[in-house]
Write a structure and sequence with these properties.
With 189 residues, the protein is mainly alpha-helical. The chain contains seven helices and five strands; from the N terminus they run αββαβββααααα.
């Protein structure tokens, strides 16, 4: 089965070493192939090759083979169905995004409680700062429509421009530059 998902194996490994292996993957009963958990399985295979002890949650067969937990019970209807599930399983959590302020608060609390726990999350202290952009100024007041005949249009008190950015970093940089020029700016998500 094809798998276009890239993995941060070092972060996956830190998580497994800290919390154990809660679930290594999901198996498609129709094909007998893994449809989720490829990165976790790669990490477990590497740990076994290195002679590490099996993490919590991984059983060991009589012949020494590691037996990670595998979720079973789902069968795809076709290969395309299996691949669609693989993509959906990865993309649905990514697409949900984060409440950046709440994430920053939670990561800060984790960092204060135990610096090593923060590393297991895949974040570092500089990421916390990056999650909460500096105050970029007050948003301009919304224009108030004036009553009158439809053919007579009054110009707005405030003119706006929407700029589409390629990344969040580009958006923050642009907002900071415009704010430094004295512009009233705000981010749209």
């Amino acid at each position: 089965m094809r798998n276009p998902k890239e993995h941060d194996l070092s972060v996956i490994r830190k998580s497994i070493e800290k919390f154990g292996c809660t679930i290594a993957g999901e198996l498609d009963d129709r094909t007998g192939r893994l449809v989720a958990g490829h990165g976790r399985l790669l990490v477990l295979e590497q740990m076994q090759v290195e002679g590490k002890s099996p993490p919590e949650g991984v059983k060991v067969a009589d012949d020494g083979v590691w037996l990670p937990p595998i979720l079973r019970g789902w069968s795809s209807r076709s290969d395309a169905d299996a691949e669609a599930y693989l993509v959906a399983n990865n993309s649905t959590s990514e697409r949900g995004g984060w409440d950046r302020g709440a994430l920053a608060d939670m990561l800060a609390d984790i960092y204060q409680a135990d610096e090593e726990l923060l590393a297991v999350t895949g974040y570092d202290p500089t990421d916390i700062e990056d999650l909460v952009p500096a105050d970029l100024g007050e948003a301009p007041p919304a224009p108030v429509p004036t009553p009158g005949p439809a053919e007579r249009v009054e110009p707005p008190d405030v003119w706006g421009v929407i700029v589409t950015c390629e990344s969040e970093d580009e958006q923050v940089e642009l907002l900071e530059r415009l704010a430094a020029e004295g512009r009233s700016v705000r981010a749209l998500m």
